[in-house]
Amino acid sequence: MATSQGNDSDMDCSDNEDCYDDYNDYYNDDNSDGEQLDMSKTDPEYFDYKCLSEEEVERLLNETVESLSNRLFISPSLAKVLLHSHEWNSNEVICKYKENPQQTLIAAKIDPPTPSKSIIVTSTYLSCPVCITTLNIDKFIKLNCTHMFCKDCWTTHFEVQIAQGISTAISCMAKDCVVLAPEDFVLKHLQHKTSIREKYQHFTFRDYVKSHPELRFCPGPNCSVIICSREIKAKRVVCDKCNTGFCFKCGCDYHAPTDCQVIKKWLTKCADDSETANYISAHTKDCPKCHICIEKNGGCNHMQCSNCKHDFCWMCLGDWKSHGSEYYECSRYRENPNIAHESAHAQAREALKKYLHYYERWENHSKSLKLEEQTLEKLRTRINKKVMSGLGTWIDWQYLFTAANLLAKCRYTLQYTYPFAYYMDTGPRKELFEYQQAQLEAEIENLSWKVERAETTDRGDLENQMDIAEKRRTTLLKDFLDV
Asked: Which of 300, 305, 313, 410 is catalytic?
């Protein structure tokens, strides 16, 4: 609830990605009690994954390489290139290689030597095409493409490429030649370049992980954990080292129920239209009854004016009582049924109006999450004083933190329902989604109202509201989460 008068807030969420990094820890419910259930059946967001160290992943990759090398009787270095070019799908590599080895190598840019490409050497001296130095033939090295260059030029070539961050994509120096230099070939020329060798091996490891569909680097700052899962789905994963949460499929902030393609399209649109939408991101509005300026200083959208005590909705400014407990009309956008027959200018205006409707609610819930973080800190301070005064223990007050965390978890999901709804086609499915979205929003605002008044709210009432809100959230996800 917000009751204070004020001007502009210093909170800015114009940078879309940075605004959501702080919310991932809300998905870790460390305070839950009760028996262990089969989460794959009860939780629509359940996802089976492991957090691995770089050493564990390197061992996993090497085992795959060794297995393929033994099955096809090829060198480990060649096996690595083939696996990397086929997204580490061993079965696919084996099938293609057994069917047509030469074509498989060419497709992986490992050009096999052929009689037509063999070089007949008539002299013991050659001139390097790069440095134009004439040297003994034993100073020259070639890949399978048979393009020969001196050892020093190969070494310099690798140093320059690695300095630019290139590793698995280092190709032959010959013009228009796309044949790749395998790992053992590169390392052989960097034997006395310890720091460059280490950098090259670091880059190749990152390339191998990025090309592996079952592996994802944790995007947390300075975190080396790698997430591993056999299923490639847009599900939430949380790093057990830095507590960073993200979508396993695309690596972006978790965005259920919106899928990966839609959320990227939405964030791009928000970035492109940010100037247009800036005017609606103000933190102050006038009370619809007494018209006094009100600043929103809490996460709850159920507002009560400090001047006239009028209860209204922050989003649509409508009387709070008119919202009812069953449906939030202000969360639903009413499209003009005759818009197809209007002028191009009218259609453009309607499109902007629709976008602003969803953007305002998306932005509002993002800001509410930030404000509820502040509410949680205030709650922690008040409870600490109570504990110090002998009014219960931390365990006695733990349910309030559980409620605050659940509130943030529900609101985070609600925020991402708006991009989902914006891109949905009109029809019965959208109507069902908007109904469930409205139900969830109503219960979230009820929970937010009670959390902000936690000290005067009956514990049983609060826990009942928590249960209702979470059931609304999981019901929506079960029906609309794309698995």
From this structure: 300
Residue in the block written with tokens 């972006």: 252
130-144, 214-228, 234-248: which has the minimum mean pLDDT? 130-144
Q: Return d(Cα 254, Cα 21) in angstroms, integer.
A: 10
Query: pLDDT, tens digit, for every residue of 454-482?
Result: 765 578 889 999 999 999 999 999 999 87
For residues 150 and 139, give the distance between their C-alpha atoms in angstroms, rounded to a whole number.
6
CA distance 197 to 67: 25
- Single-letter code of the amino acid located at 469: A
- Torsions phi, psi for 311 (to 5 deg): -95, 125
Q: How far apart are CA 110 and CA 104, in angstroms?
A: 8
Please give the mean pLDDT across all residues of the chain.
Answer: 81
- Sequence-distant (6+) residues with CB within 8 A of 457 are 450, 451
How does pLDDT run across 320-349, given as a tens digit for each residue? 776 654 445 566 666 666 655 566 666 676
What domains does the chain contain, in order, with CATH numbers? Answer: 17-30+257-480 (1.20.120.1750), 54-211 (3.30.40.10)
Tell me the pLDDT tens digit for each residue of 163-174.
999 999 999 999
Assess contact for 243 and 24: CB atoms under 8 A: yes
Alpha-carbon span 322 to 319, nearest angstrom: 5
CA distance readout (Å), 178 to 50, 107, 190: 37, 10, 21
DSSP, res 180 = B
Could you tell me which of 397, 479, 402 has the C-alpha nearest to residue 34? 402
pLDDT for 84-93, tens place per residue?
Answer: 999 999 999 9
Angle subtended by helix axes 194-211 and 151-163, to nearest 10? 60
On the question of a cis peptide bond just before residue 76, with omega within 30 degrees of 0, the verdict is: no
Global pTM reads 0.73
Find the length of the chain: 483
252 is known as an active-site residue: no
Tokens of 431: 């109507």
Q: Are strands 284-286 and 293-295 parallel, antiparallel or unpaired?
A: antiparallel
